[in-house]
Amino acid sequence: MGPAPAGSGMYKRVSPIRVLNRGARRGLELINENRARNLIQSVIEYTGGRADGVEVTIDGSDVATSRFANNEMTQNQAPSCDRLSIRLLSGRRQIRMSSDVINRSGIRELVDSALAAVSFVAPDDEIEPLAEPESSGDTGSRFDRKVSLMSAVDRAGAIEKIIDQARGADLNASGVVASGSLTHAIGNSRGLFAFHRETHAECSVTVTAEDSSGWAKMVSPHADRVDTEALGRTALAKASLSARPREIEPGSYTAILEPAAVLDLLGFLLWDFAGTSHLDRRSCLLGQVGEKVFGENVSIFDDVYHGEQSGAPFDGEGLRRMRVPIVEQGVLKGLVYGRKSARRAGTSATGHGLPVPSNMGDYPMNLVMEGGSHSLEEMIRSTDRGILLSRVWYVRDVDPARKILTGMTRDGTFWVDNGELAGGIKNLRFNVSLKELLNNVIMLGTSARAAGEETFPAVVPALKVDGFRFTETTRF
Prior knowledge:
10 helices
């Protein structure tokens, strides 16, 4: 038996605040900077001279999640966890081991286990020595006290307002509201130490009707960037506007992609901007550094210091992250590097190394795509015949070498006719080349932080593109 439709009366209306799991409590306070420094030092001291070097990473999270579905509160989870990871270097061998038992006995057991295991690891002639100390960059405060203090009751209050909107329109709302804090610290036996903390606020809303749906999502360190009521209104409006969708023929169309859709497509290019992907000859942009690869109106860089970004200003080995121009006016200008890939390429590290050891090596974590000045409304008004995509989902690589992706539209796909939205259409499957798409950009919106499902949040604009290929229709 499927879920009862909204307004059916099958479910008694109960306030989300009243159905909270009152046994769910916040965990212990996360590790602060002083304790992180002391813990790292205790690992180094206990290891003593039994290894050639030791690197210690600490990650903590107390992000709590409140879920709702079918216009009812369903779950509240409030975990709190600190995790310690050590990397030992012994001759030409290295090993990484982790544990969430962060006390005297737990640390000693972890170090002893790593010392015993490292001798069984295959030798590696490309091991980099531990990173030397350097000053970290300044991202400004990414810790919002309002987010850190948000309780289960606060989240339930936000959810109640979303549900009230949906019930008022006789629709169903589901989703997640989350809040909490994250900490990240790294130190090593050469004296390096870096610490970062930030808050995490998140809201994802899906509103469903009999034959349509709408979705909206935002993730940010800052409470004022996650407007739960506005996200609820957006999801509700999309579900309402896309009701009674009609079917259109597959083919190539002008497409308007909202930022969430742009993000979840661009995410498949990120590793192609990493030095290791080029050194291992696995990038779709192999051998094209210095060449024009996209349209002249496309510029992309990686910048952890951008005001709309999140994350620590240091990488997996503690190196300071640099702002890296990747694409300038369509030309592939540069790549991001960790220490190992930089040495192999004969260049300088940019502070984008992943925790070692890593097969991927490095990764751009803070994508920013420069935007333009056009609004979404202007894109629609300037389109005689096209399709507006709210988001994409279930996106997969069809041909990684040519960066051809397949996926589907979802939660608000609209027909644009003579400069106006002409109602919802049934979802479509697409096959597109990202390289071709970024050579066919007609208009760009203003860049802003966006959140999706296929990759982590980034700063991207809405795009209007030519020749977006839809291959088949769906039944919904």
